[in-house]
């Protein structure tokens, strides 16, 4: 997912989720003067600039970093902030230390990153080395999504039979598991973090239309890689019907709402 311009259309959802989390955790984090904050997997930088700055001390410096050069260029062109810079970083890099220093940051944040990371151990281990003892990592990522119902429905349709096996396995989280809470908590503790918070939370976000959520689904899953272009477009149309028939969006007085479950973690590097 390196299409920064398309992703940017959906950041109102991620910004709303990040804001809800930061309001919830702000007082659970320890704040000092001159914080050096890394927002890893910053994407288009909207959360970095428009949300994080509202909830951290005003003298903090923030680096928004992402594996995608396209995202970093887009963020640089879109935003200008005296205390924020954008740089490329792959949090799975085995050799981060040619460009970055151990203990360089006092806080690491990431929003909607870890569901896309296949090697959580490597990512957490790099995060551990990027901060000092006593410093904290805050992360949030979706762990349960009703959108995951779409793939198995498509897989049962005869026109997609050739791709049924892959379609049946499509999930928004790249490494789906039943035990996200214990898996992540155990892993972080084994790497030398103390857990300040590890909590599931249901997030509700208003969405303007079914088309909107389906376009997002097409962008954040592997559907477009599994199907040829013509079938991909047809599958998006079918996905709309699946969303409506299965009431994946809730109709409220204010419009349509999508509910999903996130995991929020605050992990502190042991002293
Ligand atoms: C779903 S987007 C979230 C963007 C932003 N945090 C937001 O919530 O709007 C995930 C981002 O993580 C980035 N990403 C994926 N793997 C990464 C890695 N190994 N290191 C750094 N960034 C990565 C992607 O390029 C993408 O911009």
Automatic annotation (TrEMBL):
Mind giving the lineage of the organism this protein is from? Eukaryota, Metazoa, Ecdysozoa, Arthropoda, Hexapoda
| Organism field | Triatoma infestans
Please give the biological process terms from Gene Ontology that the record holds.
methylation
- The residues covered by the Methyltransferase domain are 33-143
A GO molecular-function descriptor: methyltransferase activity
The UniProt keywords, alphabetically, are: Methyltransferase, Transferase
The record's listing under InterPro entries reads: Methyltranfer_dom (IPR025714), SAM-dependent_MTases_sf (IPR029063)
Q: What name does the UniProt record give this protein?
A: Putative farnesoic acid o-methyltransferase
């Amino acid at each position: 997912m390196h299409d920064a311009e398309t992703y940017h259309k959906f950041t109102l959802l991620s910004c709303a989720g990040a804001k809800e989390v930061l309001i919830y955790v702000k007082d659970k984090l320890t704040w000092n003067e001159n914080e050096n904050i890394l927002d890893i997997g910053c994407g288009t930088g909207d959360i970095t600039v428009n949300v994080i700055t509202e909830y951290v001390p005003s003298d903090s410096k923030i680096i928004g970093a992402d594996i995608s050069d396209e995202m970093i260029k887009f963020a640089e062109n879109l935003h200008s902030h005296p205390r924020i810079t954008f740089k490329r970083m792959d949090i799975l890099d085995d050799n981060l230390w040619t460009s970055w220093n151990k203990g360089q940051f006092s806080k690491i944040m990431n929003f909607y990153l870890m569901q896309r990371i296949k090697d959580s151990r490597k990512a957490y281990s790099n995060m551990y080395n990027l901060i000092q003892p006593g410093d904290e990592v805050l992360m949030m990522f979706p762990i349960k999504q009703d959108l995951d119902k779409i793939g198995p429905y498509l897989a049962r349709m005869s026109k997609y039979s050739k791709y049924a096996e892959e379609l049946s396995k499509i999930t928004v989280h790249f490494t789906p598991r039943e035990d996200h809470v214990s898996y992540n908590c155990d892993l972080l503790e084994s790497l030398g973090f103390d857990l300040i918070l590890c909590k599931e939370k249901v997030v509700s976000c208003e969405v303007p239309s079914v088309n909107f959520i389906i376009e997002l689904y097409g962008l954040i899953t592997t559907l477009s890689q599994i199907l040829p272009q013509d079938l991909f477009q047809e599958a998006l149309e079918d996905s709309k019907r699946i969303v409506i028939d299965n009431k994946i969006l809730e109709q409220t007085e204010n419009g349509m709402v999508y509910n999903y479950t996130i995991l929020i973690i605050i992990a502190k590097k042991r002293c």
